[in-house]
Amino acid sequence: MTTFGVAGHADGVTVGSSSDASSSTGSSSSSSSTGSSSSSSSTGNSSSSSKPSTSGSTSKPSNPSSSTNNNSTSNSSTTTQAPSTSVSTTAPSASTSTVAPSNYSQDNAYYQTSTAAQIPNSSADSTPSIYAGPVLKTIEAAKSIDKIDTSSTEAFIKSIADRVRILAGKNNSYASIILAQAILESGSGQSNMSQQYFNIFNITGAYLGKSISFKTEEFSGNNPYYIEQSFRVYSNYDQALDDYINLMIKGTTWNSEIYAGAWKSHAKTYQEAAQALQGIFATDPAYAQKLIEIIQEYKLDAYDNVDSTTQVVDSKIPESPLVASKLDNSAYPEYNGVEYPGAESYAFGNCTQYVYNRIIQLGGLVGTHMGNGGEWGINAQAQGYFTTTVPTEGYAVSFPPGVAGSSSEYGHVAFVEKVYSDNSILVSEMNVKGNNIVSERHISAGVAALATYIQPK
């Protein structure tokens, strides 16, 4: 097996097939009980209720729940004790506007070896929406979520809603549902799980090898019980949101469409979407009703007006310096296969080394210590590179772990060759079809929205 997305040499390290490319249990837990079933009680409560996740586990995870000490004002009974004292850290060693091809077949999975079978697309990418509400033609790009305002539920909504609206709409999902879940699961951002570990949806399992253990409340019918569960630890809120959206559209290893009932292609209204999550995403018997009441109280359905046809624009994004290298046919020169000085910082034949070499070939510069493929976005920001969430030609694109079929340990990085008018992208990349093999792939607008784009210097 080959490894991909790795920053440095990974001798002896292999990853499984892309079907088990998600982290540990991947389930998201939530008993989501608040002091009452009304949305107003959720402002201080972190309720959670067992949502199976993108995990690579072979058995269904038990449905865990929210964390303890999650809020100061709620009557939540989801978690009854503080987390264990240590966090597990065992980690593995403006755009070109052309029309996207209508007959492409998106490779939504990596090949771990050159002979591995391709995993089918998620139908979330291709199934038409049956949502009948208003849809925007264009929308201004939203910044990634660096911090949240927990002074009130309204402030919390304002701090995440613009980003949620775009990611949800581009991925066939109801933003209103996701916002309501964030309010309910994190107590409007006031929970310990949210403030210390950025896990605003109480997703269980491990992320990049990091997790925290909580005792949580679950339900069997109307009867509560308690279970110790591991929850994912993130580096920031945007990382948590990307991971959550990926879970909702990819499902679990045993059922890729476990959450399909909540997609806009299956649910005409947010009420139907909420009911579709009852007993699947959460064990709390009143979960769907709580979501509906929160949506109605805060009028969250106003954020459901983005879909795959909405164009995300940002006039402030600087052009890539690599655009000057384009040929007369408006395409970039073919990859020359040269290994430039500094390329030895990245694993041979991997995506990281390819993007490094590709950028230098085209006249740009990028650092030799950008990390694994899924870490390029965060590390680029820390190193002073301009980054954006809007697909941009001539930029490097960093996919979080598990997104676009990437490894749940390493993520992936590629080079944006072209951006289409629907915000989908054409990328060139390495180690998707085998070590040291360069290939191209068309990435849907929904998946592209989950990535971070890095301007070369």
Q: What does this molecule look like?
A:
By secondary structure, the protein is an alpha+beta fold. The chain folds into two domains: 22-94 and 143-303, Lysozyme, CATH 1.10.530; 316-454, endopeptidase fold (from Nostoc punctiforme), CATH 3.90.1720. The protein has nine helices and eleven strands. It has helices spanning 153-170, 175-186, 192-197, 237-250, 270-277, 287-298, 351-361, 376-382, 445-448; strands spanning 88-89, 138-140, 210-220, 223-232, 311-313, 387-388, 396-399, 412-419, 425-430, 438-443, 452-454. The strands form three sheets. It has a six-stranded antiparallel β-sheet with strand order 6-11-7-8-9-10. Strands 1-3-4 form a three-stranded antiparallel β-sheet, with no helix packed on it. Helix 5 runs antiparallel to helix 6. Residues 1-97 and 101-122 have low confidence and may be disordered.
Record the SSE blueprint.
Layout (H helix, E strand, L loop, with lengths): L87 E2 L48 E3 L12 H18 L4 H12 L5 H6 L12 E11 L2 E10 L4 H14 L19 H8 L9 H12 L12 E3 L37 H11 L14 H7 L4 E2 L7 E4 L12 E8 L5 E6 L7 E6 L1 H4 L3 E3 L3
Parallel strand pairs: 2-5
Antiparallel strand pairs: 1-3, 3-4, 6-11, 7-8, 7-11, 8-9, 9-10
Radius of gyration from the CA trace?
21 Å
DSSP summary, beta strand count: 11
- Major pleated sheet: 6 strands, antiparallel
What count of helical segments does DSSP give? 9
Task: Report how far apart the termini are.
Answer: 34 Å
Given helix and strand content, the structural type is alpha+beta
The domain tally reads 2
